[in-house]
């Protein structure tokens, strides 16, 4: 696959099976993402920086086909060896390709870009330019997910962006794996992790979540998922504009508008 000069730097490339399952499940159910996929005339999805192995790209393709069966997924990596490995391991998987590319997206115009555990390894000052470079390449109505997670995918956070601006922040976890919601602070995206200090909205959000989690302790007898839902209800009652959880939610998910973090 030919394209523009690759923009970016080599990152560690760690990966693992099912590591990004929580963000994948969120993408499948998020109304804005579903609408973008369903309305796209050319449903191309880019998985940017998939790492040493192509497993998360293949998983993304399989999961998103529940929304749009005819989509095409392209995994992009900045190192030729990773591209060759991905092609060898993936074989002739239908409608999944692998190529050399960075934030310029190899000249593609995708409706969705997933860039997980990529910008976390950059300096915070590089984030705005990286976002802008990807945003310029999006198809009309396209979206970007810039996120990070731990090695097992139990603690995650991501920002959803459109062609102009960030739209929302999502924190997601296995509720069985946390003592309090602020455990997710170490997985905040690069644009936010240095702002988790007193006086900043993200710090206030995490403190409010911890207080609501403590208040909802009585619901813990029914399990941490029930307790997480009770925490969301308490936050909403206190004026935090959290997205309502979907039914039969497996994960602990807290999504707020980006504008809430700018107040």
Describe this structure in words.
There is one protein chain. With 263 residues, the protein is of the alpha/beta class. Helices cover 32% and strands 19% of the residues. It has a domain of 166 residues: Vaccinia Virus protein VP39 (Rossmann fold), CATH 3.40.50. The protein contains eight helices and eight strands. The protein has an eight-stranded mixed sheet, sandwiched between helices. A hairpin with a 5-residue loop joins strand 5 and strand 6. It is globular and about 50 Å long. The termini are far apart.
Keywords:
single chain, 263 residues, alpha/beta, Rossmann fold, 8-stranded mixed beta sheet, 8 helices, 8 strands, 19% strand, globular
Task: Explain briefly what this protein structure is.
GO terms for molecular function: methyltransferase activity. With 263 residues, the protein is an alpha/beta fold.
List the helices and strands and how they pair.
Blueprint: H1 21-29, H2 31-39, E1 44-48, H3 55-64, E2 72-77, H4 80-90, E3 96-100, E4 112-116, H5 127-137, E5 143-149, E6 155-161, E7 166-173, H6 190-193, H7 201-215, H8 224-237, E8 252-257
Parallel strand pairs: 1-2, 1-4, 2-3, 4-5
Antiparallel strand pairs: 5-6, 6-7, 7-8
Helix pairs in contact: 1-3, 7-8
């Amino acid at each position: 696959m030919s394209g523009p000069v690759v923009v970016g730097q080599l990152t560690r490339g760690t990966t693992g099976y099912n590591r990004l399952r929580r963000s994948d499940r969120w993408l499948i159910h998020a109304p804005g993402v579903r609408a973008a996929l369903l309305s796209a005339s050319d449903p191309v999805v880019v998985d940017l920086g998939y790492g040493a192995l192509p497993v998360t790209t293949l998983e993304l393709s399989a999961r998103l086909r529940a929304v749009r069966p005819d989509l095409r997924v392209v995994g992009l990596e900045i190192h030729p060896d990773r591209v060759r490995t991905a092609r060898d391991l993936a074989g002739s998987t239908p409608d999944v390709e692998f190529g050399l590319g960075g934030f310029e997206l190899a000249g593609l115009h995708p409706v969705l870009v997933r860039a997980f555990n990529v910008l976390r390894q950059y300096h915070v000052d590089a984030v705005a330019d990286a976002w802008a470079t990807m945003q310029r390449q999006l198809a009309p109505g396209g979206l970007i997910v810039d996120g990070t997670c731990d090695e097992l995918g139990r603690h995650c956070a991501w920002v959803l962006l459109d062609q102009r601006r960030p739209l929302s922040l999502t924190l997601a976890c296995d509720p069985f794996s946390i003592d309090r919601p602020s455990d997710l602070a170490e997985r905040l995206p690069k644009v936010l992790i240095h702002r988790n200090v007193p006086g900043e909205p993200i710090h206030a959000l995490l403190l409010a979540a911890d207080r609501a989690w403590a208040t909802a302790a009585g619901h813990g007898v029914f399990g941490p998922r029930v307790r997480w839902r009770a925490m969301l209800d308490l936050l909403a009652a206190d004026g935090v504009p959290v997205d309502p959880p979907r039914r039969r939610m497996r994960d602990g998910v807290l999504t707020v508008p980006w504008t809430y973090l700018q107040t």
